[in-house]
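We modelled the chain as a single entity of 492 amino acids. Its sequence is:
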Amino acid sequence: MKLSALTQGVACTLVQGSLDTDITDIVYDSRKAAPGVLFVCIVGTQRDSHDFAADCAAKGAAAVVIQHDIDLSGLAGVTVLKVDNSRRAMALMSANLFGSPARRMTMIGVTGTKGKTTTAHMIRSVLEAAGRKVGMIGTNGVYYMGRHEETANTTPESYELQRYFRTFVDAGCDTVVMEVSSQGLMMDRVAGIHYQVGVFTNLSPDHIGPGEHASFEEYRSWKGQLFRRCDVGVVNIDDPNTQALLEGHTCALVTYGMDSRADYRASDCQLLRTHDFLGVTFHVSGRDEMDVKVNMPGQFSVYNALAALAVSKVLDLPDQAIHDGLGRCVVKGRVELVPISKKFTVLLDYAHNEVSTESLLTTLRAYDPHRLVVVFGCGGNRSKLRRYGMGEICARMADFSILTEDNNRFEKVEDILADIRQGMLRGNPDARFVEIPDRLDALHYAVDHAQPGDLIAVIGKGHETYRDRMGVKTPFLERELLEEYARQIGLE
């Protein structure tokens, strides 16, 4: 592609060279520089890749995009463009490179602190029940047409994002559901993308600190940017931050929640539990009336389902698709039921800090189990405060805890368990727990010692497919391991 076509719609200044230069690809990692590519220099939190421009030129890069002035002596014969914001320029050029694929599909973006992943999965499930062909991007990876790929970020870098969109179009997708993180908005990963529907779940302090957001207000402001880039905003009217987050919005609004002013409001919520179902039912009123059944527990599942329902109504999807999609939606590692016995209930969840653990256990306690049992550990080379906090919460809220490894990385599991134990004793000196360092042994112990009516929550790893010990990752899929052990011992 000619550089002139690649930079269509991009405000830039030609420093040297020609816009008639042929470009084979766009790279922003200097290690991937090769003959004919355009190298985009990005100012990062750790390093400034302008320092590697000359190295990329030596590898044959045809053009370089810079954000600030650099020494051009090592760039003889290389076309150089200067822009105000190289991240934004890369996003727009990547869209041009791949033929603006997002314009060919219905785009749905989901933002918020919690619930993004589950809400996105619910929306996708309803869309597919309605016959739509969906590509999805988020924390759990990329899904499209029965395929799955892992991703490094909730919202990938703009080049990867546009490449995925191109893949979706080529595979026949007509709709995209994606999680839009505050970092994705702030770092221009989604620059140039217009959404038909934007969704807001909820907001609480997160991602605040060096390299992320300077304050909660800044975090909230970036989340709110989504609602200047969509046609319709579907927002949680019950969240106290909604009004401030929507400041300056340019979209039409549709609201959901428990508040009587909500366009789609839930009432008469009922908890349901069987050996193969742990969920809720509720009635929806407002712009429409219907009863909904969701195979996920707790009030947060009601909110996530309401958001998905409201999106479905905005897109004019049939009611049957809403019922079918919400009724059968399962999200890997998010209160994911593992139905291995009719006598007790086992579920997996990604809860891996104090707040998410407390929220999960509060939800599960409402189902009045015979015992609430928690299997958990904490990651190595991470803050010890998380260990103390999770230990304290589980000591207070669980009837029995099984302390074990998580991803220990380069720490000894015994040291991590000692920290968790401190938290346990602080939370409840009489707490009942056992320590089993090997996580597979801990899973087997939980099954072997389960009592009728128990609810066993295996938390911390969720959708992860590996176990990290001393920097070595080996396969570890908890759902498969539990199902295999149930078959091995002939569990009923």
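As a brief sanity check on the tokenised model: The CA atoms of residues 284 and 290 lie 5 Å apart. The first strand starts at residue 13 and ends at 16.
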